[in-house]
Amino acid sequence: MHTLTLPLGFFFMTWWSALAAGAAAASIPIIIHLLNRRRFKVIVWAAMRFLLAAQKQNTRRMRLEQILLLAVRTALLLLIVLAMASVMPWAESIWDSLWPDGSGQVRVHGGRTHKVLVLDGSLSMAVKKKGEEQTAFERARARAIEIVKDSPSGDGFSVVLMTGAAPRRLGLKPSQHKDNLIREIEDKLRSHPHGNADVPATLNLVARILAEAAGKFEASEVYFLTDLQQATWVPGKTPRTAEVPDPENPAAPKDAAAGEPFNPFKKIQNSALTVFVDVGHDGIDNLAVTDLQLGRPFVTTGLPVPIFVKVKNYGARPRSNVRLDLQISRARRTATEPAFNADPPPSARMVFDLKENDETTLPFAVRFKEPGDYAIWAVLEPDDLSLDNTRGVVVTVKKEVPVLIVNGKPADDPYEGAA
Question: From 277's CA, which of 173, 202, 206, 223 has a CA 20 to 30 Å away?
Answer without folding.
Answer: 173
